Amino acid sequence: MIVVVCLNPALDVTHHVDAVDWGGVNRPRAVQARPGGKGLNVARTLHALGVDVLVLGLAGGITGAGVEAALRERCVPAAFTAVAGETRRTFSVVDGSVAGRGVTAFYEAGPEVGEEELTRFRRGYEQALEGATAVVLSGSLPPGLEAGTYATLIETATAAGVPAVLDTHGEALRRGAAAGAAIVKPNLAELAALAGRPLDLATATAAAGQLRGAQAVVITLGPDGLLAATEDGCWRARPPAAVPGNATGAGDAVAAALAHGLVLGRPWDERLRHAAALGAATAAAPVAGEFRRRDYLGALSAVTVEEVR
Amino acid sequence: MIVVVCLNPALDVTHHVDAVDWGGVNRPRAVQARPGGKGLNVARTLHALGVDVLVLGLAGGITGAGVEAALRERCVPAAFTAVAGETRRTFSVVDGSVAGRGVTAFYEAGPEVGEEELTRFRRGYEQALEGATAVVLSGSLPPGLEAGTYATLIETATAAGVPAVLDTHGEALRRGAAAGAAIVKPNLAELAALAGRPLDLATATAAAGQLRGAQAVVITLGPDGLLAATEDGCWRARPPAAVPGNATGAGDAVAAALAHGLVLGRPWDERLRHAAALGAATAAAPVAGEFRRRDYLGALSAVTVEEVR
After folding, report:
1. Do B13 and A91 touch (CB under 8 A)?
2. A-contacting residues of B 26-65, CB under 8 Å?
3. A145, A150, A140, A138: which is closest to A117 by C-alpha?
4. If you placed Cys at B270, which of A109, A162, A266, B266 could pair as Cys (CB 3.0 to 4.6 Å)?
5. What pLDDT, on the 0 to 100 scale, is given for residue A300?
6. Chain B nearest C-alpha distance from A47 (Å)
7. CB of A94 within 8 A of CB of A103?
8. What tens digit of pLDDT does each residue of B208-253 get?
9. Residue of A27, A69, A91 with shortest CB distance to B15
10. To the nearest 10°, the Cα dihedral for A22, A23, A28, A34?
C-alpha cells in the first residue's frame, strides 16, 4: 500500500462561462466540483494504475466533508484527520471567449492548523506506515504548520523502513530532502527558486545539489520531460511531442509514477520512462489527475531515456 | 410563526482580492461563505427582528449541507427537503483595486428538481402552514420546477387561511399574483419586464394592474423607496438619503418587513414606513440580510409616507 499525505486538500470548483462580464453578473454554462490539491491528484493517479492507496490528510468544515464525499464517490480510500478550520476551495473561471489562456483562478489558503491537530494526524500516519511500501508527501502546507513538518514525517517513515517521495517547494522541500527523502521532485522553477538563480537544462543537474540528503532528485521540465540525478547516475527522459491539454496534474502523475516504480523496484531508466509517459498522458487529458490508458501506453513506447554523464 | 419558502437556496462565497489578475492565479486576502438566496435573507431579517420563523426549502449535496450548517450556526430554524441535485453556489470576487463597482459575480443555476421531490416538500409545507401566521415565498425557482409552482403553494396557503407574500419575477410572479397572494413585491425592473415597457414613478402604479389577483402590489424603487397599490389605497414611502452599502438584501428586508407588518396588523402607512426603513438600514449594512438596529430606528423617524391619489 502507498500512503499519500495531503495536508492541504482542496475542493476545486470550475465555472465555464461563455463570455465573462467582469464587474457584472455571470451565469455559468457548466459547473464542476472535484477533489483537488496535488496529493489527491497523486492518489487518483495511483488508484487508476490499480495501486492499493490510502490518502491521509487534514480536512475540516463543509468543504472538507465535500472533499471526503468526492473521494468516496471515486472509490479512493482516505482517512482524514478532522481539523477545526475550513478546508480550502479553489475557484477557476474558464472564459469561453478567450482562446487559449482564458482561465482565472482564485486559491484559498486553507485552514489554520494547530499543533494538537497535527499530533492527531501523526498518530494515524504512524499506524498507516506499518502497512506501507512507500509514502508520497505532496503539495503546500496549510497555514500554521512549520516548514519542517514534511521533514519530520519523512524521518518517521525512514525510521519505519518506508521510502518517501516528496513533491513540494521552498524551505519545506529543502528540509524534506535533508531529512533523507528517497526521491524529491521539484520542477525547474522550484529548483531555481531554491538555487537563487535562473536555471536551464545545462545547469539544472548541478543545481540539484541544493537538495542534499535526498537519494534522488527528479526535475520536471514540463513538455521537455524529466532530468534525474540519482546515486546510480543521471538520466534524461524525453516524452513524445507535447499535445494540448491540462498540464496542471502532469507533475502529480510523475510523482505517482516515481512512487510506483520505486515500490516495483524498476531500474531508474524504466522508472523514468513510465513517469514521463504518465506525465505526458495526464497533460493530454482535460482533467487534472486523469489520463487515458491508450495515451499512457502510446507514450511509453515513444519516450526516450538516455544516461547523462 | 412566519414560514419562509426558499426553493433555491445558495451558499454565497465571496473572495476579496487586492488587485485581481484576470487570466492568472489569485490568492484572496479574505474569504466569506454565507447562506444566501433571497428567502434566506428574508428569514435572517425576520429572525433578527425577533420573529418566530421557519425556513422551508430544498437542499442537496455538500453545498446544501453547508447552507443548513450555516443557518444552524446563525440559529435560524430550517427544515429542508433533501433533493438529489447539488444546491447552488454563488461566487463573488471583490476587486480591491476597483473603486465602487469592483464586484464580479458567478451564479450557479441550482439543482434540477423532480416532481417527487416537490411532492415531498409540499407535504412538509402543508404541515407547517397549520402553525403559520404568514408565508413568504422568495427568489427564483430551481431548474425543473414549472412557473406555476408558487401559485399552487399560494393557493394551498390561502385555503389554509395563511396570507402569502411573494417576491419573484416573470411568469412565476404573474401566476402567483393571480393565485391570490396577499402582497407581491416586484422591483421596478421586474414590473417593467411584465408590462413589456419601460416604467417610471408616474406610470408604475398603473402597471401594477399587470399583477391582477394580488391584494396588494408593493413596488421597490431602490433608493427612491416604495410605491404601494392596495385595496385600501395607494401610498408612497420615501426613505432618508441613500447611504453607500450593499443594496443586494434591501429588497429582501422589505419583503420581511411587509410580512411582519401583515402579521402585526399594522395599517398600510405604518407597514410601509417600517418596510422602507428596514430596506434603507439593510442597504447601509455591508452584508446582505443584516442591518444595524440603530440604522433601522433612525430611518423609521426619517421615512415619509404619503397617500397617492
Report:
1. yes
2. 26-28, 31, 33, 62-63, 65
3. A145
4. B266
5. 95
6. 24
7. yes
8. 988 999 999 999 998 889 999 999 899 999 998 766 666 778 999 9
9. A91
10. 80
Among A167, A179, A176, which Cα is nearest to A256's? Answer: A167
Q: Classify residue A87 by its DSSP letter.
A: P
β-partners of residue A164 are A135
Q: What is the CATH number of the domain that holds B6?
A: 3.40.1190.20
Domain of B110, in residue numbers: 2-308
State the smallest CA–CA distance between residue A303 and chain B in angstroms.
Answer: 31
Query: In chain B, which residue's Cα lies nearest the Cα of A94?
Result: B23
Instruction: Write out the H or E segment, with its range, that includes residue B56.
Output: strand B53-59
Residues of B in contact with A104 (CB under 8 A): 20-24, 26
C-alpha cell at B98: 476597483
Number of H helices, E strands in chain A: 10, 15
Chain A residue with minimal CA distance to B103? A23
Q: Which of B104, B107, B108 is opposite residue A23, by nearest beta carbon?
A: B104
Total number of domains in chain B: 1
Q: How large is the ipTM? A: 0.84
Whether this model's pTM surpasses 0.90: no
**Residue (of B193, B190, B143) closest to B166 by Cα position:** B190
Residue A243: pLDDT over 80: no
